[in-house]
Each structure stands twice: as structure tokens, then as C-alpha cells.
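hey so i finally got around to running the thing on that chain from the lab meeting. sorry it took forever, my laptop kept dying and i had to restart like 3 times. anyway pasting the input first so we r on the same page abt which one it is
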Amino acid sequence: MPELPEVETVRRGLAPVLEGSRLTRVRQNRPDLRFPFPERFVERLDGAVVERIARRAKYLLMPLSTGETWVTHLGMTGRFTLDGEQVGEFEETAPIVGKHEHMSLCAARDGLLTRVGFADARRFGFMGLISSGAVENHAWFANLGPEPLGNHFSAAHLAEAFRGKAQNIKVSLLDQRIVAGLGNIYVCEALYRAGISPLTAAGKVSRPRLERLTAEIRRVLEDAIAAGGSTLRDFANADGGQGYFQHRFDVYGREGQPCRTADCSGVVKRIVQGGRSTFFCPVCQKR
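ok and heres what got predicted. didnt touch it at all, straight out
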């Protein structure tokens, strides 16, 4: 499933084309993805201008001139594609390309149209249209924790959230109510960089180690975004390109391989926590 760096990469790819563009020739090819499309979805998008493109956790948010916000979750295999064309080369509705593309539209700006498609082979993604003034209180967003790259994410926040918590720190960091947008890959990588065992009870991690952890969470996310995210199976950005951060994983997916820490004799181990694979070095990641 795309995590925060992959969704941010998509946001950055879409922004130059969609921000300030008028949506037109909208086409919906099926009634649902993971959930049904919003009622009158095509009608409500058609003619709207995208004011900006934001990201909250793993969601893309596009506030529209109509007073609604178009929300997209990519699920496991969802992806947007962009195809630039001249005006007049499309039908009355934007063409659907490929058997897994389920909606398309044209973004009109400066006399040009760009075809935008959304494909989702496994259909675990979903879309919504929410009144822009009600987004923060919507069920998808009301209980989310702070953004890990935002000003409200800190060691002090984690110390308060983890106070008295016996649950291991790996699973605790995946709790979107504690920090929004972190996923399995980047939690494994951040814990490795911070030298913290994923088996450690969250409430037992000292304040100095939480300071280091918050810094490493930010750093690994920023590194991944700079590399265009990670492509393990299906992720591609809006231009069809793949991410490259998977070539820089220190522990994720490296079970049985030597630890990359200098002078460490450890071998990367894989365990299962909360139904997810955890990769770590049992030698240099201390409890």
C-alpha cells in the first residue's frame, strides 16, 4: 500500500497540472471502487476548478471552487496518470485507457487539456466529495494524529501518547491516532536508524531516544520523498515512473542479510507484529 512518501510524490506530480485547472469531460466507468462513488460524482466534479492539492496522512485532498473537497485514497494499487493533449482531440468525455482505469477527466487551463485517469487494479482505493468546511470533522480525518513532517509532531507528543503504554513501539507508531501517515516500511526504517528495538514497550522509551526517533522519522520520510517513494509492486507516480527508495532500505525486506551498521555483526531478522512483517537488527537495535 502506498505510504506517506508515495502519496506525497503523487501530490507533487499532480499539482502543476491540476491546481488552477477546470475539470471537464468527466467520465466514470463503474459504480464503485472499495466503496461506491459519491452520488452524482460526475456532475459534481464537472466544471469545478481545483484550488489546490493537499495531503493529509495517506489521503489526497483537492478543495474545489464548488465548496466541496475531492478526497482520494489510493488503497493498494490506485494511481493517477497524466496525458497532455491539445484542445479538441478528445471526445465529449475523456477516454478510459486500459481495463483497470475506472474514471477519467480533462483538466483545462491556458487553452490546453490534460487527460487525467485513475486506475486501480485491486479496487481498494476510494473517493469522496466532502463539504470543504466539514473535512476536519469527517470520520476519515477527525481522529488522525499530527503529520510526522508537521510542526505538531515532536518527542513531547510521542511521550504523552506513549505514557504508560505496554504495547510495542512498532505497532504503536502505526496507530494513525498517534501519528498520521506512517506505514510499515518507514516505521521499520526509522526504528533501525534510531537504534530502537521494535519489541520495546512504547511507554518505556526514554525522552532522549524519542528525540532521536522523531528526527529519524522525519529524515527517512524526507529521504523517501526525495527518491520518489518506494516501488515494491504496483506504485507509480503520475508520470508513470517508479520510486527508487526501495534500493536504500536498511532493514525492510532484507531478512537474513547482514546489518548495514558499521562494525555490527547482526543479521536482519523478520518477525510478525500486529499482523505485519517487522524487519530489524537484533544486535544494534536495543530495547
